[in-house]
Design brief:
Tumour Suppressor Smad4, lipoprotein, disordered N terminus, elongated, EC 2.7.1.91, alpha+beta, about 25% strand, about 25% helix, 20 helices, binds adenosine-5'-triphosphate, kinase, nucleotide-binding, seven-stranded mixed beta sheet
Length: about 625
């Protein structure tokens, strides 16, 4: 490997602009190479598109490390980390370098962080404790295999870099780590740069111009604008998730991005069904700001309900963001929130996301409501889809297609699921719904759960206080109190008079009853295209068996586009609460993909209860606006 003579760069408002004067940067194997010009732009600019496709990317194998023209920019949204490099003068005898001439110093990480890395999940107060052997810390100390994705300067090549020894005050040797597409994934890549100019901001701020730390800090500030740096993450892996691939998917695809971004990671493996409820209920929440579920949608459901069962649930929901790294068979949360079904892109989105509060839904049924009502983040369904979701488990080997087959089979058999439904509407007609959507689609800014102006490295949101003895977040309108957890419509009380009973002609012939809060319920199934993260409503979609098969077929075939809700035969409303009373003798409800008993079910929206991570602070664009 050879370092080019002057690997220079400047900071711009968009990112780090490579101004290398010589050629060759790296080849397809990630090694610095001779004879070609450098351009990072063509691969770096793919990020936005790559995360949108359902498999997480549409890049050719060779796209990732193709050589790129000069004068191109590594955008801040791709930069994971920056460290200043100190040349150890003691090793510079007779112009020769030792094999480790650079000492990297990460300005953003503190010794306090190192402490956290080595703690285990176990805590004396926590019962039951995950066994220490099940909890692993990951950090830069045990890096991913960097053979192909880590560019390092070889000792010999540093002769070329010697000019850096005579660096001017405004020149800084910086190791930059950034994400590049590789195959279908995104991987971390390192580059050593001599940054000899700084951005306008630094030029007007002499303090940051003078030090390398100032330059590093400026890069990190811009790279993590509106996001929290150096997250402390508990990763919960369901080893059975995704047909047994969840652990490998996490370790090979998501973990490298998280580690290189400076996140502190601890891993807990689920050992039995519903173990994640116990883990979240008994967790030492002071240690983490994020719980990332490397799983399908089952584990986030369990984590949210585990947090809900804590005596300190208010603190827990104020402190911890729950997110998903898509490693299961159903990854609706990641597709909706990170805009991708690919674990490496989801990890990149995780570190770059905006912490946002989203609404949850609280479900009550006679058999469990006196113990714990259940919180649902995704959906509840009854009828054809519930049966197809749960009762096709025996053909799980077929993958997601089993669900579509099940739905089609049940519908074409003319099956119906009589019930009574009572609804509190927020927007009943499709026209009202559209108005509601347009009025609320940009309101997410008010839902920021994280004060972007606060020190992003402070993990003590709850502990730090201001003069009035209140934390900055406590003063935020998004700070939760016990009142946020109180039900407005307890099931023990009669149905309120302002709820409407749905036409029994319709409900006696019901085929699909589906309520949800996220746009995607599965890959390629945009069931709730008008869903918004925190509009305080639940989307309701209903079909009935009076719809002829000739009309039902195009409705089912348009689920991937989400345009089924426009069909006149499909009921689509925004609601605040409902009660459904099944009239069939056998069957089930499916709540977030979990089997629930066939009993009356009452649900109400719980506004902005859960902190999560949304790319750009919003759900994936469903194009509902232009439908
Ligand atoms: N060790 C375990 N043994 C048995 N079941 C487990 C274990 N760990 C988790 N589970 C259960 O697996 C279920 C599915 O989890 P998850 O959503 O992560 O996976 P998935 O691949 O998407 O599967 P599904 O298609 O069922 O949603 C959850 O109900 C969870 O309680």
């Amino acid at each position: 490997m050879a370092v080019q003579k002057k690997l220079r760069a400047i900071l711009t408002d968009e990112g780090v602009l490579i101004k290398s004067q010589s050629h060759h940067m790296f080849n397809k194997h990630g090694q610095l190479r001779n004879g070609d010009s450098l351009s990072l732009l063509s691969c770096l600019s793919c990020l936005d598109d790559g995360t949108l496709s359902s498999d997480g990317g549409s890049f050719d194998e060779d796209d990732s490390l193709e050589l790129l023209p000069l004068n191109t920019t590594i955008p801040f949204n791709r930069i994971l980390n920056a460290k200043r490099l100190n040349i150890d003068q003691r090793r510079l005898n007779n112009g020769k370098f030792s094999s480790d001439p650079f000492q990297a110093e990460n300005v953003s990480s503190s010794s306090e962080n190192d402490e956290v890395e080595n703690r285990s999940l176990s805590n004396d107060k926590v019962q039951p404790q995950p066994a220490a052997s099940d909890v692993h810390s990951l950090s830069n100390k045990n890096k991913w295999d960097s053979k192909t994705s880590n560019i390092e300067a070889s000792p010999d090549s540093l002769h070329d870099a010697i000019p850096t020894l005579g660096m001017k005050d405004n020149q800084h040797l910086i190791e930059l780590t950034f994400a590049v597409p590789k195959g279908h994934d995104v991987v971390p890549q390192k580059l050593t740069l001599l940054i000899d100019h700084v951005s306008k901001k630094s030029r007007t701020n002499p303090k940051s111009e003078l030090t390398s730390s100032g330059v590093v800090e400026e890069i990190l500030e811009k790279s993590y604008e509106n996001s929290r740096r150096n997250r402390s993450i508990l990763v919960i892996i369901n080893p059975h998730g995704g047909k047994g691939t969840a652990k490998t998917l996490f370790l090979t695809k998501a973990s490298p991005i998280l580690v290189e971004s400076g996140c502190k990671i601890e891993i807990a493996y689920t050992k039995y069904a519903r173990h994640a409820i116990d883990i979240a209920r008994d967790l030492d929440i002071s240690k983490y700001d994020t719980i990332a579920c490397a799983s399908g949608d089952g584990i986030p459901y369990e984590v949210i309900n585990g947090l809900f069962r804590r005596p300190d649930r208010v603190d827990a929901f104020n402190k911890v963001a729950v997110t998903q790294l898509p490693c299961g068979s159903g990854n609706a949360m990641s597709i909706s929130c990170h805009w991708t079904n690919n674990p490496s892109y989801a990890a990149l989105c995780l570190v770059k996301s905006i912490e946002t509060r989203i609404d949850l839904m609280c479900c009550s049924q006679p058999s469990y409501m006196n113990e714990w009502p259940r919180l649902s983040f995704l959906s509840q369904t009854y009828g054809v889809i519930a049966e197809s979701d749960i009762n096709t488990e025996f053909i799980r080997w077929m993958g997601p297609i089993r669900f579509n087959l099940g739905v089609a089979f049940n519908i074409f058999q003319g099956r119906k699921y009589p019930c009574e439904v009572f609804v509190k509407y927020a927007a009943k007609s499709k026209k009202e719904l559209k108005v509601h959507f347009l009025e609320n689609k940009d309101k997410n800014k008010g839902c920021l759960a994280f004060e972007s102006n606060s020190n992003p490295n402070s993990s003590s949101d709850i502990l730090s206080t201001n003069n009035n003895n209140k934390t900055k977040n406590e003063l935020s309108p998004n700070f939760l109190t016990g009142d946020n957890f109180k039900l407005k419509y307890p099931m023990t009380e009669p149905v309120p008079s302002d709820w409407e009973k749905m036409d029994s002609e319709l409900t006696d012939n019901l085929t699909i009853f589906y309520t949800g809060k996220m746009p995607y319920i599965a890959k390629d199934t945009k069931f709730f295209p008008a869903a918004l993260p925190a509009d305080g409503t639940i989307d309701l979609v209903i079909t009935d068996a009076r719809i002829p098969v000739t009309k039902m077929t195009p409705i089912l075939l348009s689920l991937d586009k989400g345009s089924h809700v426009l069909e006149p035969e499909v009921i689509h409303s925004k609601i605040l609460a409902y009660k459904i009373i099944p009239k069939v003798k056998s069957g089930l409800f499916s709540v977030d993909g979990e089997k629930f008993p066939l009993e009356p079910l009452q649900v109400e929206v719980m506004p902005m209860l859960c902190k999560t991570l949304l790319r750009n602070g919003r759900y994936i664009d469903t194009e509902f606006e232009s439908m």
